[in-house]
């Protein structure tokens, strides 16, 4: 029996669009629109899609950092919230829960407070949760920083003294400080140089193994996701179009959007022959998504039914879910 | 033999900072052939962008200074031109596309005004003729409803559309050389594919040479005929795109190729280059890559290797490769 550490049920997050003097609500931006998935313990789940498709919002809403509009999230057997049943953990319970769920952010320049020393950044959580006293916490911080490939003497330094890759290591050390079970990496390597990306990626791989972590890995880089993740969900305009194991998805992409996305990856060798599907136009605005299948405006196989009806999600192979009228 | 459209010889660009002078571009030679796409690859801070700014003579003054070298464009040294003549070259013979299309376009003028400005300045087109040419250019780069877009402002367009407007502007005077500085880095993959396709097509159609600056080896594999790899202000390897990808010789290039996750199988460990790029203030005495190299030798610490041509125009700056070559030669 699979052990599901995280279960997300029809999660929704709408941002209101306000207009006029009285900030009248005139509509919603459906950033995350009814997505469901689960992550097994010890698994790395990848969330891919183009910018604005709702990947980061999904991550933040799961952690209850953004107020959910609908749906429920269960973590490690406990419900965090269930909007339909009007249930949510109290603030204290949530704070306790957060120990087990940590986040690594994209921009290593914005996610570290420039006025705090590295030691203070890494120990903040431990002190807040009163896990260690100040001295122990500092020792622990040194240990973590060394684990992340930084010298222990870094605790006295400030973020501006470090390069982007090193800052990201600090962010990773901070996320591990509370011994979490689950980590959300929100494009943790997108802002880094190629050679540094590989370093941070292998570091994350080692730590995930060492600490027995489960990871939700948000990225727009398909090559990285294929290499790094066990299962992958492809998002388009706030919904999943396809979810499957990374082998299934890359060897046998079913949804036309996934196919186009994969074909758009630049080839890895100059001699490689690649059949390219060039999508026309841009991603429509999530404030006014197309009716029916959201992808129909750019889909090369569009049929009449696509413009009217939202396709159902079907399991076409074991653990390979596709939402498309073609199947 | 293809004719060179641009020849850079021994270019040195320096910046004065509060901590002393740094050499951002150190003795670079680069040839760009007519109608071909040349890739310039490297990590941030390796001097790729400064090289491109030097060609356009846009190195920020007074901190930056081109202290040595020649930049020959059609056998004419751009560094000898006065500011007025240089202005005639920019946008006309050589034009440039930048990474961030939002900051490169002026938010308070319409698209038509901004493209039209170039046309008026260099070609003297005015009024209706100018407008029609603008619409034609927008159409060429695949912008839908160009007759509307020409009257719109940059904020009304998406990132991919803006980058296409930049390309239209850059190509408005049929330049012979286009410098594209990370043109697709800020774009999504599907939009990147669109933009690259357009650039490739136009380069072929107008016989424009492109200097494509990027850190993405995939984009290079996709687009370029020739590649130069830069590290810490110097070119460390140069050659035909196939040679560089199939047979990388410098340990930095090898490392870059190995750290790309697209070729590594799942479960296999990603190889990575340890350490970081050295600070320009504090360069190693010998080879700049020595501290990170997987095969360092004693001589690497002492002396900078030369960029030596091996076969088929494949040039490498590495002691290990050089010694290997000598040994084979002596046999």
Automatic annotation (TrEMBL), chain A:
Concerning NCBIfam families, the annotation shows: oligo_HPY
List, for all copies, the residue spans of the domain called ABC transporter.
6-262
Q: What is the lineage of its organism?
A: Bacteria, Bacillati, Bacillota, Tissierellia, Tissierellales
User: What SMART domains does the record tag this protein with?
Assistant: AAA
Q: Which organism is it from?
A: Tissierella simiarum
CDD domains noted in UniProt: ABC_NikE_OppD_transporters
Alphabetically, the GO molecular function entries are: ATP binding
Identify the InterPro entries for this entry: AAA+_ATPase (IPR003593), ABC_transp_ATP-bind (IPR050319), ABC_transporter-like_ATP-bd (IPR003439), ABC_transporter-like_CS (IPR017871), Oligopep_ABC_C (IPR013563)
For this UniProt record, the keywords arranged alphabetically read as follows: ATP-binding, Nucleotide-binding, Transport
Q: Which PANTHER family does the record associate with it?
A: ABC TRANSPORTER, ATP-BINDING PROTEIN, TRANSPORT ATP-BINDING PROTEIN
What name has this protein been given in UniProt?
ABC transporter ATP-binding protein
From TrEMBL, chain B:
Q: What top-level branch of life does the organism fall under? A: Bacteria
- Cell location: Cell membrane
The UniProt keywords, alphabetically, are: ATP-binding, Cell inner membrane, Cell membrane, Membrane, Nucleotide-binding, Translocase, Transport
Q: Which residues cross the membrane?
A: none
Q: Say yes or no: keyword Disulfide bond present.
A: no
User: Is Membrane given among the entry's keywords?
Assistant: yes
Q: Where is the ABC transporter domain?
A: 6-257
Question: Where would you say this protein principally sits, based on its record?
Answer: membrane
The entry's family comment says:
Belongs to the ABC transporter superfamily.
Q: Return the PANTHER family for the record.
A: ATPASE AAA-TYPE CORE DOMAIN-CONTAINING PROTEIN, OLIGOPEPTIDE TRANSPORT ATP-BINDING PROTEIN APPD
Name this protein carries in UniProt = ABC transporter ATP-binding protein
**The species this protein was found in:** Tissierella simiarum
State the organism's lineage: Bacteria, Bacillati, Bacillota, Tissierellia, Tissierellales
